[in-house]
Amino acid sequence: MSDFAIIIPASIGYLPGLNGILNALDYYGNTCTVEIVADDIPDSYFEEAQAAFDFDIVMRGVADLPEVHVDDWSMVRRLHFARYVLAAKLADRYEAIMLLDADCLILGDVTNQFKMAASSGLALAPHNVLGTDLFTYKEFHHTNAVPIANMPFFARPDKFADVFMRTIEISKGSGGIDDMPALYFALDEAGLVGDVVLLPDNIWLNNHHYASRVTLNAKFPPPQRRYYSMRERVYAIHKRWWQPQFVASALHGLGARVASVAAANAATFAEAYRFFNTQCKVKHEYE
After folding, report:
1. What would the pLDDT profile of 137-155 be if each residue is shown by its tens digit?
2. Angle (nearest 5°) at CA 159 between 95 and 38
3. What single DSSP character describes residue 200?
4. Which end of the chain is more exposed for a tag (fewer CB within 10 A), N or C?
5. How many whole angstroms separate alpha carbon 232 and alpha carbon 227?
6. For residue 44, what pLDDT is reported?
7. Is 0.90 surpassed by the pTM of this model?
């Protein structure tokens, strides 16, 4: 098994995302172990995936992580926080981990980012541009206006284990704080915000899908599909671009100045998911 691991919570509704991620990891030559927390994806899918890929895939259920069995939490909420608990529990197993959502497609070899996190002790995470410049930390409260995104989040699990576990306590209670702000508040409480290196959104997340054009550079033939934004290599795109209804909502109401960029990006992102689901080793057809 690798010294590096990607930790992904997933469900059957996100299978096009997860399958795209696994195929893309293989396509770009990643060798890290993939630790998946899921309860409703058939075992047959993981058996097919493990047979197809050279990297290890470890499957776990939410039941294996009792720390997230908070009484008033939904299964979705438990799944979201399961990644933190698992990361903490694996602190002695891996030199570095990456937290990832099942709708965050990786578009390159991320070995160097793992190595940087492992050797420096610093975490690497995208700048959350969905936050606001007016955000100030006052007290624990639900808000997505925090400057640090929680995926892709590279870190040494031994250094950040207590932070990961602290998110559970911060978020307990009805109407509690979601997983991304919980991580930021836990980092701030531990005095570790300054140990997080922010990565550019347009390269590592693309939450502002209308800010800059992302293109597939045709100069690089397979197996070197390379995506670029502002002449920089793009390593991740976030959100459910395989779903037509999501695409429609993401494009709705945008101003004329950004609508054309957003529409072009949506088509590029949807094509990326289509390629990594239908043209690679483990095929998954979807509407």
Report:
1. 555 666 677 889 999 999 9
2. 65
3. P
4. C
5. 8
6. 97
7. yes
